[in-house]
Amino acid sequence: MKNITKIIVSLLASFALSLSAIAGELTVTGTAKATYNTLSGKASGNNTIGVSNELGFGASGELENGWTWSYALALDPAETAAGGAALNDDASLTVTTPYGNFAVCAHACGLNASLDFGANAYAVITDTAYAEGKAEPANIDSYSNMQYHTPAGLLPLGIVAKIGYATSGDTSLYSSNRNNIARSTTVGATTMYNVSATPIDGLKISSSFAEQDGAVVLGKTDSQKSESGAISAKYSMGNFTVGLGKAYIAPRIALASAATGATTVESYENTNISIGFAVNENLSVSFSDESSEPTYLTSATKGYDQDTQSIQAAYTMGGMTLAIARTNYDNVGYVNNADVTETLVAVTMAF
Q1: pTM for this structure?
Q2: Cβ pair 275, 287 in contact under 8 A
């Protein structure tokens, strides 16, 4: 992996030193969204109104030899009563060449394929604001990372391969030229792979695998290092779309946790199903079911599956989309009978 890192760094450095860039352009993107959310069951709290507050800034340009580059940055204020300080996150710098794409990313460029099954009218519901506690595979966009993607059309069956590498488990965002950063005490370097293919019209298959070095405590490694993988398939024919997904997660287990196996999860197995139907060019509906099964170090420990079922509908009028999602969360956080029902209404304006 050190050799891969050196190759990517050397290529990026050579681009910067040997090529001149033509002046690029700046763009601002985003969505204006307002939501109304209600919860019942084990969840506590009042009904909530939310308004989107994130903007995306992008810049792009072309080099003299025809290669292109792009830069992206999100402005994402913190959630506080006063509105929060403006935070810059999700940054990436990408160079696109005939030989593939080279990128350096911070809190961006995720390669996790576990959510690619979604055929939802509104959204993958376990990826929204409510924290149901479902375990998902590790994703390299949690860290500052560098990546290489094979060029489109190079491999048969529409195959595109991607590899990413994060030097440490540090989740902080830093300006350029930063050095001597304190490493994470729980996670080391992360290597992640993603392979997708479109073997026939309407079908996309995507897979990912991530492995993370464990922390070293008193000269000893963790009892179990973090490894996770996922595969998803989504097929569209006519007005119907069907998505299926499986994911397996082996979380990091520290040395101290291994001694308390009765309360320590050894692995999770996730099964995801999603069905979407376009009633007409404006209205779409969907149903999805996501389940996650934990396995403990001690086989005698009884585990409870976390299951999420969501019915959604979305209606588009020009640049406006009205959506509603009715969702049942069973055993939130893998706790027996911790059940929650959520109703979410969203109005989105595209710009």
Answers
A1: 0.86
A2: yes
